């Protein structure tokens, strides 16, 4: 079902600006490697390096750089939303991204379908504290709500041991459970994106 023309965008919602090392960046890089096995290629966008204005419009004007990131989202077949865990929650950068995506609910294609209906979303969460399951659930609900389709087992994560300070990027090797989850995520997302391209959701019937 995969297609060499399929593309993926990994959004890294770390709070650390480039070029600081980021566990979320590492997870995103690993996902890119898995997607490449299915002839799906793309890039990582570190959102904190952009000026993303608060608001729920596609362009808030002024120094707002959301339109540049939005253009990459709309050009991709698959978008991976990757966030660190802070105080048990997704990062504020990821929350801002979800708020900006709200504007897409009012944008439709030529057949009247919400513009994100054609796209697949997956998620990745890392952190040395609890919260990955809740963040994954919150992301999947929000992304599905704005129009993305989430594949089976479309979330991967790593939680460090409680009360310790080891980050994902500090591990000597990637745990087998994470490697397996990354592989399943990429395989299922590539399959689903190919299926949606071949057979898009039907448009609303006119009254």
TrEMBL record:
Pfam families in the cross-refs: FMN_red
InterPro entries registered for this protein in UniProt: Flavoprotein-like_sf (IPR029039), FMN_Rdtase-like_dom (IPR005025)
Entry superkingdom: Bacteria
NADPH-dependent FMN reductase-like domain location: 8-153
Designated name of the protein: Flavodoxin
Organism encoding this protein: Microterricola pindariensis
